[in-house]
Fold each of these.
Amino acid sequence: MTLPNSSAIDGSPDRPVRIGLLGCGTVGQAFVRTISGQGETIARASGRRLEIGPILVRDTSKPRDGIDLRQLTTDPQDVLRDPTVDLIVEVMGGVEPTGTYLRQALQAGLPVVTANKQLLSRHGAELLALAQSSGTELRFEASACAGIPVIKVLRESLLAAEIFAVTGIVNGTTNYILSEMSRGGMSYADALAQAQALGYAEADPSEDVGGADAAAKMAILASIAFHTNVHFDDVPFEGIDGLHGEDFDLAKDLGFVIKLLGVARLVDGGISVRVHPALVPESHRLAAVRGADNAVLLESGTVRQIMLVGPGAGGTETASAVLADVLSILGTAQGSFLQNALADAGRPLLSPDQTESAFYVRLRVVDRPGVLARIATVFANSGLSIRSVIQRGEGDGARLVLVTHMGSEARMNAALDAMRDMEEVRGEPVLLRLLAEEGA
Ligand code: NAP
Ligand code: HSE
């Protein structure tokens, strides 16, 4: 079928890139909000403006934040055949009719970005071949681990890294439920309801708790990591719905936490991919991944271990990965921002004096009345607030440690100069900066 718009994205930087959206639920609405909220940043960094064109939904009367109702349609051809659309973003989910729509778009030469692991884990190889033969692109970063850029890392940075294992927490909903249950915060049912309310769960949450969602993601990750097509049906999976409360307590007594893991390995040249709940030692890096966060531990012959951690579900987080794919597609054009151009936002560089930290200062002082008060006055005069103080007697002197709240380097340097001038201070004060919650 030849569609009205079968051209690649118009290279003219003056014309906005118009996006046809399939689906406008949790991720779709967040994507529209992101495009509108970050429009200036996107334009400055990529040299292109993005705009949302027609949007396919099931029900045009549903309230949707920040969406112009006139853009909504229930006819997919209003999106797929719109001659002004440059690129399709698919965030409706499911295998059909979505697969049919994406085939139509790709055959027409339209680039496609999708968050759809259900479809990719079953028809990814065929859709990629179709994109290739149509001379266009299919990108799917958000289909595994939402906001974590793991697919791009595997496809580009680690393409030749001889990955032999991919072990991950790849479902945000179940990790959220397990985290809440293990800290005794919520029951299974309440935690699942909360994950649904927060937009983490699939339209059918049994996909999450039964392990199918994680299996789909592991099929996608294993396909890319091992350069071999792994189909959803190749991945045996178990979910968390069969776990018993007593196993959480027993695991804890034994020094483990229970996580839903995806495990993909090269074994004797073959590929094994599975999803199941597993006991993870409390000291393991994966044990510390909590809430809706995901993590993927990549093991490789060349770079040993790389672990990527970040948001594994959520509208805004997923929309960020979808946007990244859109920008990657724009970036593949000759002379685009990804081809050697450095975006210049014209932001001033701060001098070291302007940067802020909390500080740890260690001093040797003579042990005599009023010394601590004089040191405290130096900090006060420099505008630095003291958070804690330790004083330890050492022979005829004392070791004094002061930890401050956040303050500028300039203030700290002034305080150090004043202390160096004090005859009660012996030797050079030692200064360290704290990794504070507000920044380092
Ligand atoms: P959602 O909230 O259920 O939204 C789905 C949207 O698609 C809705 O706007 C719905 O229309 C529309 N839609 C569904 N079937 C349709 C059909 N047959 N025809 C027309 N419109 C249809 O789902 P979501 O959470 O945004 O997820 C979307 C996709 O992103 C899924 O593939 C999901 O696996 C993936 N994903 C989600 C997350 C997340 O955290 N939520 C993270 C990563 C990936 P109505 O609004 O009219 O019902
Ligand atoms: N339902 C999925 C999850 C969304 O909870 O991980 C991200 O793919």
Amino acid sequence: MKLLIKNAFIINADTSIEADILCENGLITKIENNLPAEGIDETIDASGCYVFPGGIDPHVHMHLPSHAGYSADDFSSGSKAALLGGTTTLIDFVTPKKGQSLTDALVERKKEAANSLIDYSFHVSPIEWRETTEQEIKDCIKEGITSFKIYMAYKKAIGIENETISKVMKVVGESGGLVTAHCELGDEIEILRENFAKEGKLSPEFHPLSRPANLEAEAVKEFIEMGKEANCPVYVVHVSAKESLNYIYKAQQQKQEVFAETCPQYLFLDDSKYQGNFSQTAPFVMSPSLRKEADNKAIWEAITEETIQTIGTDHCPFSLQQKEFGKDDFRKIPNGAGGVEHRLSLLFTYGVLENRITLNQFVNSTSTQAAKIFGLYPQKGVIQIGSDADLVIWNPKKENTISVKTHHMNCDSDIYEGITTKGAAKYVITKGKFVVEKRKLVLENRGSFLRRKNTVNLFTN
Ligand code: URP
Ligand code: ZN
């Protein structure tokens, strides 16, 4: 299969050039001017559009089990929504049950992801330390899993103590991997939640008050310190609080390998969303919770200054019926919201078009950095000869108003409802074939499990 893209304005993280792109058998094989159209199966003229490497979302939860049932998008529906938004690779999670080995949980999770329409990998979560955990981590690395996720929150379920985190970091660091963390101090949050409950303060407005910004920042500080001690690269997921940024920035200045991710909800939404009735506010119940406008501003600045390297979504939608599990107690509301479809258009509109980031930074933070940090580069995250032909032909003029009525995520609410965007994926190519044409899914390509390599050290390369 030969596909030719004519007149492409190719945006990579570090270059912008005009050329034609030839894709053969799923790979990019030529990038030159005036490539001939003879012998080509399909040709497209990309004049007036940008061509980006496919987006990589390093933080999604498809088909996540919860007390309210599975999250609303499975790998099929979630990957479809991702594709329509210009994302062609997902990194989800493997969370074992208590007593289950990491490797058995990985085998199970791979089966659940087999219906993904795009390529995928997982971060694996040690939720306890058993005699075999060290070997299980090493076995996961052999299977191409080079990043692990620990939770400092959710102590009653999957959160672990600092002592265990340090053990995980030691093994992962020695093996050349990376530990990522949900940074919120779980014990302190639990006390606040219980105090609110005792006082009968059980509506969603108490969700953010029970997990304040300083408990995120303190956890970030501890996590970074543990990473330094264990000589293990660390990555802070979904940074939401201004106070967390100082710790990340300082560690990076000292050349410690500390990476940070944020998500669009921490740029576009604030805690005023928790004022209102249950069905208005419950869709915004997620952890970390939404913060203040000043935090949104600081997070934008950290993206511009590249203290934050990646933008994921923490995509994890639940239906309103599922959110109702917490109608009488915010602690029972399943945490999470959808966003995988909107990440690129939101970042393009309010990042690039409002001059907060350049086009190259846009590609860097939505694709290239995730590929480098999580060992997928240069297979993914760049348009160059030999890379996978996962490409987005982006119409910078297409206007849209985000709405639950038109989105493709399997969710009956949309936390970005009413926000207008300019710029959308017109065509999306995966494995060298058109899968989205004129914003419609036209081909259901099967995604593949990606065996990843170790992190590229961004501070020395
Ligand atoms: O609220 C969130 N983030 N839900 C998804 C699960 C998690 O905590 O990562
Ligand atoms: Zn998450």
